[in-house]
Amino acid sequence: MMENKENKKSNLNSNNIKKEDKDIPLDITEDQFYVALGHEIRRKILKIIGDNGISSFSHFKKQIQSSTGTIYHHLEVMKELIIQDKKKKYHLTNLGEHAYQILSNNIESIEIVAKQDEKTEFNKENRLYDYFLLKKLFDYFSSNTNKTFLISFGILLLIGVLSGINNLQIFLFFIRQAQVGEPLYYYFIMDAITIFISYFILITTTEILSYFIFNNHNNWKKFLNILSIPYIPILIYLGIYAISNLVFPTINPLFFDILLLLFQVWSMILLAKAISIVKLVKFERGLLLAILIDYGTFMIMLIMNNPYR
């Protein structure tokens, strides 16, 4: 058995994997390393490659019995630990071999801790908490990047339409009353343009700050899709705003101010969740960056004397 494993591992050169390709610098963060080992599917992938020295995607799918999108998502998370040769076979990098040794030597304790974490999360993060964080939506967007592009586009476009109907203007997660006197179609067009501009500003700002704070510029393309999720609370707010003005036209504006503040906090938390998923960092670090972006935007609004609220 040992000879068979050694023979499989000795096939690295024949599969066009050079030594320098395996020498991934050990400069990834502690967060990224433990995120890679923190999921059962990723541990299975690591063990399959480590036990056999080489593996294929079809082998993963057969052994793990999960969807193609899910497996590709986990392979992306583990890109510092595994490498693919020209024949589309997967091998461990030096860092991956190190992780495999840790996993092999501590498999029982790692699985116990992982199960305890899952149990703790289940007790702490009940269904209401998962709904609040839109967990299933994040999972779907992360695993189906290509399919969710149109959904992201639709979310932003709908926000532009609703803000035009409500005579509001949006920049990032901040909203103000638009100036009156222009035709309705003008607000539709301008709000649609503004929301897409602010979306790309959010992507660019998040990516730049992630680079300087986390020294991480990986997976930036995922932001194109996943950062539309933090806009969902704003979309819900605009819907409530429109319906409330139709049903209760004399409602106190203070109600909308308080409601908007709550939805802005929700958006900020979802932004933190998105950052933690894309950049493979802890939620707390993502929240720090989200607060920085939100506060920075608010200060810019004040400096510009632009009364967004």
Query: Main β-sheet, in a few words?
Result: 2 strands, antiparallel
Number of helices: 16
Average pLDDT level? 76
Helix coverage percent:
55-70%
Radius of gyration: 23 Å
| Poorly predicted parts | 1-14, 23-27, 116-125
Q: Helix-strand pattern, N to C?
A: HHHHHHEEHHHHHEEHHHHH
- Side by side, the strands of the main sheet go 1-2
User: Structural class of the helix and strand makeup?
Assistant: mainly alpha
In total, how many beta strands?
Answer: 4
> N- to C-terminal separation?
67 Å
Overall number of structural domains: 2
Please characterize this protein's 3D structure.
- The protein has 309 residues and is mainly alpha-helical.
- The chain has two domains: 2-124, Winged helix-like DNA-binding domain superfamily/Winged helix DNA-binding domain (Arc Repressor Mutant, subunit A), CATH 1.10.10.10; 129-303, no CATH class.
- 68% of the residues lie in helices and 5% in strands.
- The chain is built from 16 helices and four strands.
- The strands form two sheets. It has a two-stranded antiparallel ribbon with strand order 1-2. Strands 3-4 form a two-stranded antiparallel sheet.
- Helix 4 (40-52) packs across helix 7 (94-105), helix 11 (149-165) runs parallel beside helix 14 (232-247) and helix 15 packs across helix 16 (283-303).
- The longest helix is centred in the middle third of the chain and has 31 residues, at 184-214.
- The radius of gyration is 23 Å and the shape is elongated.
- The termini are far apart.
- The model is unreliable at 1-14, 23-27 and 116-125 (pLDDT under 50).
